[in-house]
């Protein structure tokens, strides 16, 4: 994997760059649609390419490990071959799901024992095991196995957890560096900064992670319930320490405003379930603001959902028709809303990139945050 | 509306023809995907056109009347404008849903009083009212308001009901002929043969319906639980009476075998929820036979769903991937299955048409019925 910086904003820390992987290049800043179980919910693969113009999607190690399972994925020749998405894929480490979905889990030095949310069966994830699983999935970008602490989190727990996350990282790197991709192409491994909402821990973690000198770095444990201002404070703190010549990935973020603000602080990559999950509840993000499509206001609005962002779903269907589908509980309602919201997210980061290159990112960002976050 | 016969099979009563409506032509025999509430469930409009190659879709008067309602449909300029489907649309009369969905309904000479399955509110459908509703929906082909009797049905009830259906038909025609389309294009009205499973009633009804001399005729009240052989017997009986120079529409039919057999008896048009409803349960109709995609057998089958029938969903995705999606309860599983099953149905009637024109329909049909109905 390589990363090239294309442009840096003068008035903020925003950067435009290009990541090159075995499955193609990614122009940053970028948003990665979440494809939990090998599918971005309600979205066809060609819609990802043609309408949404996604450049990389995310897969969840926890979900893929349970279903379809490693045997099927390996026989298919990896996730790209299995789901037909031949552009870059990033997989998380499964840690986050193990902590949040699994009712009973036990974290020890060796790893995490947990129960499947599907059938209650017992499983064990270790740093080494999770590397092996991600080798089998075949993601272009693999993530280290860490502990993502909740918010708020006691200082002592956060410190103990962070030290273990750093020891786990060493084990991840040892396993990663002593193995090879299974399908004839290179993969890379991103470590993750943790440290909850404690400055000294975040600084210590960012310095430790930077010292591993991997090809890219991630920031985890934010956007877990803390105020947005606090998130921005820690993003900036950490970005300033992480090397400038490597991509920075802020995990699980966020709203359109969160994304634009964090880009200004030096973040290059984002992922979040928000655009797809909220789509399924009838909440649309558009270039003009936020729409609750269930509202009476849209009943007779026969204008397209959002002509500005382009793509079939956003320009072909009207608000009134989509409102009808959502009210009627029709699957097509979720399909249109999901494709639209992702189209908007990808449009937004593309716009951001252009304004970074044009040199007016900060002014555009301040205007845009207000515009896209207003309720219509 | 016009109908031209293109070819007639020598060895059976199968015909190939062409129906021309204000929204384009339809090559018969044809299958019409069911778009209940203005959406073919889980299918995008461009998938209907490009992948499935649908030529006409069905809308349900009952559902559209309740949601989005007539005010929205009229403001939109009719259903075509509302959902963006600019090819032909046929609407049923709402009768079938009123009888089957509505818990409490009362049928009197004037019409039917029923309760909405959504909110329990009381409504009244009369032959005249249903004509007005279908004028507002703007379907190219409207259906008469009839009573569809259940199976089995007492002779006396069937006879009484049939007489009323014929009186209602006169009222439908009177209203239809004294009104005009609301959106500047012509609509047409098909009457419906009823008579349950009684030969004398079916003959009487077919003769009555034929005497109305409308532009096309429908056969209702079959495929409601009676044995397939009985359905074929009555289809043939009725088709022989209905005029040969008008299209014949067999309502609510059926399996691939049902369709091929009824084509051989002189039917030109079909609709059924089977391909989409069964798709959502993981049952696939393919050119090679019937697949329960949940079965272990498909777990590692990375071949396309059905390359023979063409279209994106059927050729891009593998059986193993689709099985995974269905097992995981992913919406994309229903989407792929629905598009595939409809692609197969449209492929099947297109093949039927070609074999009618080529003159070898009967032999092809006998082979094909066995092939597509076998369980793989």
Tell me roughly what share of residues is in helical segments of chain A. 40-55%
Strand order of the largest sheet of chain A: 4-15-14-13-12
**CATH topology call of the largest domain in chain A:** TIM Barrel
Q: What is the assembly state of the chains in this entry?
A: homodimer
Extract low-pLDDT stretches of chain A. Answer: none
Structural class of chain A: alpha/beta
> If classified by CATH, what would the architecture of the largest domain in chain A be?
Alpha-Beta Barrel
Report the mean per-residue pLDDT of chain A as an integer: 97
How many beta-strand runs of chain A?
17
Task: Please describe the biggest sheet of chain A, giving its number of strands, its sense, and whether it closes into a barrel.
Answer: 5 strands, parallel
Binding site for substrate (chains A, B): 92-96, 146, 194, 221
Keywords (chains A, B): Glycosyltransferase, Queuosine biosynthesis, Transferase, tRNA processing
Enzyme class (chains A, B): transferase
Organism (chains A, B): Adhaeribacter aerolatus
Please describe the structure with a list of short key phrases separated by commas or semicolons.
homodimer; 376 residues; alpha/beta; TIM Barrel; 5-stranded parallel beta sheet; 17% strand; ArchSynthase1/Queuine_TRR (chains A, B)
Could you characterize the architecture of this molecule?
The structure is a homodimer of 376-residue chains. With 376 residues, chain A is α/β, with parallel strands linked by helices. Chain A has two domains: 2-272, Queuine tRNA-ribosyltransferase-like (TIM Barrel, Alpha-Beta Barrel), CATH 3.20.20.105; 279-373, no CATH class. Helix content of chain A is 44%, strand content 17%. Chain A has a five-stranded parallel beta sheet. Chain A has a four-stranded parallel beta sheet with strand order 5-6-10-11. Chain A has helices spanning 45-52, 61-66, 70-76, 79-83, 95-101, 127-137, 155-177, 199-211, 228-241, 256-263, 274-280, 312-316, 319-327, 331-358, 361-373, and strands at residues 2-8, 15-21, 24-28, 30-32, 57-59, 89-91, 105-107, 112-115, 122-125, 141-143, 188-190, 192-193, 217-219, 248-250, 269-271, 283-286, 289-292. In chain A, helix 10 (256-263) runs parallel beside helix 14 (331-358) and helix 14 runs antiparallel to helix 15. The first copy, chain A, is globular and about 60 Å long. The interface between A and B is large, with 41 and 41 residues.
């Amino acid at each position: 994997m390589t990363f090239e910086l294309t442009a840096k904003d003068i008035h903020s820390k925003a950067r435009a760059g290009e990541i090159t992987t075995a499955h193609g290049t990614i122009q940053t800043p970028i948003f990665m649609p979440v494809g939990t179980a090998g599918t971005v919910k309600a979205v066809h693969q060609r819609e990802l390419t043609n309408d949404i113009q996604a450049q990389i999607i995310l897969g969840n190690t926890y979900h893929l490990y349970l279903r379809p399972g490693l045997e099927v994925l390996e026989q298919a020749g990896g996730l790209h071959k299995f789901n037909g998405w031949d552009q870059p894929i990033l997989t998380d480490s499964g840690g986050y799901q193990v902590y949040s979905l699994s009712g009973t889990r036990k974290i020890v030095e060796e790893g995490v024992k947990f129960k499947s949310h599907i059938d209650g069966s017992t499983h064990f994830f270790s740093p080494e095991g999770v590397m092996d699983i991600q080798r089998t999935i075949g993601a272009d970008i693999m993530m280290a196995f860490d502990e993502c602490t909740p918010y708020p989190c006691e200082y002592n727990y956060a410190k103990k957890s962070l030290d273990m996350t750093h020891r786990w990282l060493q084990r991840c790197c040892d396993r990663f560096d002593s193995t090879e991709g299974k399908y004839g192409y290179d993969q890379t491994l991103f470590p993750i900064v943790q440290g909850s909402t404690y400055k000294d821990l975040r600084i210590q973690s960012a310095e430790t992670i930077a010292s591993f000198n991997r090809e890219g770095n991630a920031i985890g444990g934010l956007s877990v319930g803390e105020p947005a201002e606090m998130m921005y404070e820690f993003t900036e703190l950490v970005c300033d320490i992480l090397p400038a010549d490597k991509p920075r990935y802020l995990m699980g973020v966020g709203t359109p405003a969160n994304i634009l603000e964090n880009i200004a602080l030096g973040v290059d990559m984002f992922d979040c379930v928000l655009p797809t999950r909220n789509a399924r509840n009838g909440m649309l993000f558009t270039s003009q603001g936020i729409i609750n499509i269930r509202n009476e206001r849209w009943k007779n609005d026969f204008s397209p959902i959002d002509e500005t962002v382009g793509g079939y779903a956003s320009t072909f269907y009207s608000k009134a028709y989509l409102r009808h589908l959502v009210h009627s509980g029709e699957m097509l309602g979720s399909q249109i809303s999901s494709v639209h919201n992702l189209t908007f997210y990808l449009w937004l980061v593309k716009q951001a990139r252009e304004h970074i290159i044009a040199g007016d990112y900060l002014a555009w960002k301040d205007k845009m945050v207000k515009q896209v976050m207003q309720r219509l």
